[in-house]
Amino acid sequence: MEQRMNFYEKSQGAMKAMYAMSGYLANSPVEKRLLDLLYLRASQINGCAYCVDMHAKDLRAGGETEQRVYLLDAWRETALYTKRERAALAWAEAVTSLPGREVPDNVYTDAREQFSDEELIDLTMAVTTVNTYNRINIAFRVQGGSYQPGQHGK
Predict the structure, then answer these.
(1) Distance (Å, rounded) from C-alpha 40 to C-alpha 81?
(2) Residue 3 pLDDT grade (very low, low, confident, very high; cuts 50, 70, 90)
(3) Is the pLDDT of residue 86 over 70?
(4) Computed from CA positions of residues 83, 25, 101, 77, in that sequence, does the dihedral angle turn out positive or negative?
(5) Which CATH number does the domain housing residue 45 bear?
(6) Residue in 139, 149, 151, 152 with CA at minimum distance from that of residue 1
């Protein structure tokens, strides 16, 4: 499968807006590692090879264990994730897939127990932002596998 076009080079204005949101999220009170877990989980759900490659590599470069990265798509079946992480992962999955066209009440309640209003808004913005990146990369067939950790922060 060939990449259709280099969207990132051809859409400087649109990408500037996306990068502004990413910059905002980089300064969020939500822990960077937790945001990176959410980015990876949403990318797994969406099947975005480029983003799965990127976020897995960034997590590993940031000190995340291989075991937690490998088991992320089965996080409910392991005790490797904290209650806060579990609430965030459930939130990310619900916001990404919108089961029944909503976020279930129990997922919201669990998230509210773990996160402040600002943090929950930031989690939601993080999930919707990575979903947008996933859809751009999938639409234009951006290939996964060549990402180098920190590449987009340079």
Answers:
(1) 14
(2) confident
(3) yes
(4) negative
(5) 1.20.1290.10
(6) 139
